[in-house]
């Protein structure tokens, strides 16, 4: 057994985990990163397209470039990182945490006073959107295809159907187009692409990749290998319209139908899970309901920009140092509640007695032009902020003065009106 | 004569059609044409129910009958037959056709004796037919009708499982089943049972009828449970459950694990297993089979066992003893995430009488790995290979079974799949020497409770072979035990530590959802896995909530390395996973 004692252990060496580790080291904590993959960088390793870091560094980097900014800093700061180490067990032991990880080098045991979970998210599967038909070779998720093409040089098929009009789907479509896939079609149930407008232009329109809005896949066809898919038109409520079924011949179907936080380990540990985000419920420093256990990045909710994910890690790092120095918490946390037009809201409560302003991330249900982001307390509106537009595909970031939330101890409701 | 009259009477119910029949040694052959496939099934079943009918060969065609496809298949077989009929692979005492749980069980049972045995399987792996899509329940034997072979072999088979599990080292849990009786149980008969009589019947009469049925079938130990005890046993059982019958013998297994374990042990005891080997015909001398012709060549043989599942009727036909037609019955199963395991302790079912047609026989059961399965459904389908799932059927399963539990996270579905049962029209197991071929043993029509009966089926089949003239001399080298594969997920950490010292791959986690190490994947390949799905069935890599999105490539890379094939040529089940290299070049 290899014993390692630290102040903090970061579980997950993707961008958020790396950012948390860097910030923690800068704050003077003894920190270790535990990564289950072969190398650091997480999902960014396979994201060879650019567009990362526009908010944080003011320039558009590729995924590996963005990751290497942090990996280099980590090295400079002398932070230890273990790769190919998979955390199998976490236990609370008299005020501290004990993590056990398995790796080809042996079994590690980390004891620490705080844990930062940065396990990211996973892709939703065709089963989660109830696609019917068979289960042959040739059905993949988009992230898998991205990995396959960019890191292994292998193509999923020659005629590829992409299901989902989000960013991942569009980016993968462009890669496949450039790598020589003969025929592509993107289908999605929304009236227009759900991803960032810049991706619509740069990934789809610029390359003339065909797409069909208000369409989804009803069935996969093919015994051993995909032979095609049954497409169906959907109405405003995404319900299939009977009689509009159409067979589309293809040899691969790629699903890009949403991301879900990888929160199972936290759930097993007993952390409260928010049914809206399916990630852990957290306080203003992104601490879960387990004291000393923090969650950052896409584990909270999948972010549109890695820059935002990284910001949660920076904020959590400050929380960790508050936790380590034993700062006071409120007797009763102040709940932050989503309003009627808010699909998800992170964080979920204000728990610390003091601290900086509170950063909120929220995603609206309905698209609104010139909307008002409002925060209401028990005595009426406390704050509002006008935006140019708000849409479900974009996470809105809001910064609230702490005193304002504290003035409504029963809780506040955040909405997009 | 009597039989003829009864068959004629059934056909007379369909005056619109010009149907005819022929009876040979108790086997009824039906001819003619009907409008729908449903009618085809209905007529077959009705004739099959006639007492004294030993088999129904339903040669009636229906509108939409895929004549082209059937012809194509026959021509393909003929072509492969011609190409391979002169090339001898080897000479065997027994050739078993079909590598499902039944074929594997018979192979292993025969390996106790000094015999040369070949097991032929069409797919690249064993257990890829009905076996892999089974819900893994080992039934106690309460349900099969009295007087059937099913009943006899089910009751005996269930009792034999524990020993199998010990010898073969597969996961086996005797969880018992709990059959709930609720106000919905006899809803269809409610009008005959006015007022308090309804509840009374449900609470005090019906449970004992079930217990009695068990006793008649030879299943003892059934117990009626009422009131609080139901919820002590099954905390999330339907709140309105009035009574329940507890069956202590019911167990759960992974059906493919059982078949794989059997095949591995059979192979260790000398059985030669040939995968990707499809039977296309027989070489015969009079009424005796001399050789089994496959795409690999001819397997000369003294005896043939037909355990070909949904293809058993075609094998029988090719061999010259058509005695039954398989009418495929599809079942859809919905699988839930492991976190749902805490909601269900027993194999759970809500008794509904009469059973709703599309979900007859299904229920809720835990799996040995802590997942939960709902289903299967039961739908007649014309195509034996139709394992497609209609999303509406998933919904049907979710609706039908949700009344048995008061609370259950129904949204945590991680997969659904379908399999096809090999039902005959007599709806009983057909395990008997062929009527018109001297050395062929039918082991056909093995549908539910086939998995539960498998140990007894194997024993019974070997006994039949002995009666047919196969001499059985004990194999002194027979070893009934199969080495388990150490699984990272189940090991103690100090044990893991030790193993990593010897083999670092033990500590390399390939599948994070199910915690499968590289060493386990390599071991699976060493034990015969050739495809990604074969590795999945042996290790569980890819069975978690991400459904392989993260580990698929890693497993494929290991297969590519271990088998020495390029990554794009690694198979999923029968077809390559990927298409080829980017711009046609290997990196």
From TrEMBL, chain B:
It comes from the Archaea. Residues 509-560 form the BFD-like [2Fe-2S]-binding domain. InterPro entries: BFD-like_2Fe2S-bd_dom, BFD-like_2Fe2S-bd_dom_sf, BON_dom, FAD-dep_OxRdtase, FAD/NAD-bd_sf, G3P_Oxidase/Oxidoreductase. Residues 3-62 form the BON domain. Residues 93-463 form the FAD dependent oxidoreductase domain. This is FAD/NAD(P)-binding oxidoreductase. It comes from Thermofilum pendens. The lineage of its organism: Archaea, Thermoproteota, Thermoprotei, Thermofilales, Thermofilaceae.
